[in-house]
Amino acid sequence: MKLHKIFQATLIGALCLSVAACGGRSKDRPANTNVAQEFNNDVDAAKSDKSSIWDVFGGKPDQKVQVNRYLWNASIDVLSFLPVQSVDPFTGVIITGYGTPPGGGRSYRATVHIKDPALDARSLNVSLHSKGGPVSASTTRAVEDAILSRARQLRIADKKF
After folding, report:
1. What global pTM score does this model have?
2. Counted domains in the chain
3. Would 27 be classed as within a structural domain?
4. Is 79 buried (19+), middle (13-18) or exposed (0-12) by CB count in 10 A?
5. Counts of helices then strands in the chain (DSSP H, E)
């Protein structure tokens, strides 16, 4: 029984350390930032009146991530031969299962992430996998190009171009 309690305490400690290790250096902060100054900034932030569970996740409950609807619809349209497993329009993620394209013999699965409201190639991230592993970069690029072309067609058809 005592060994079981030690194991639980060790596991909880390891989980706490792994979560603490997730907080790396911010992209906005230069590498040569003074540690004492950073600590003081953290202390000042901790003393602020603003405190809620949403502070942990860096957003507000009513704050929505905007996803480009043309890229979203084009991704669903171009990858329609793949069975959709999961979609999250708020974060812009589409996850599909394995499927075979029309006229093809190899099965693929895809993960699409639309990160920005702009109709731009930088807003789109596609990851393709086959049962043998990751797909070549040229195949992934061809799918991204097809999605971008379809998104532009949808935008022109919507007469907002």
Report:
1. 0.59
2. 1
3. no
4. buried
5. 5, 5
pLDDT per residue of the chain (161 residues) written in tens, 0 to 9: 565 556 565 656 555 555 555 555 444 445 444 444 444 444 455 445 555 544 544 545 444 568 889 999 999 999 999 999 999 988 899 999 999 988 888 899 999 999 989 888 999 999 999 998 889 999 999 999 999 999 999 999 988 65
The residue behind tokens 């099965």 is 107
Domain assignment present for residue 87? The answer is yes
d(CA 5, CA 10): 9
145 is a domain residue: yes
Instruction: Compute the residue count for the chain.
Output: 161
Q: Is the dihedral of CA 88, 104, 145, 73 positive or negative?
A: negative
Full domain range(s) for residue 77: 69-157
Residue 68: exposure state from Cβ atoms within 10 A (0-12, 13-18, ≥19): buried
CA distances from 52 to 29, 46, 65, 87 (A): 24, 12, 19, 28
| Amino acid in position 89 | P
Question: Which CATH number is 105's domain given?
Answer: 3.30.530
**Is 130 part of a structural domain of the chain?**
yes
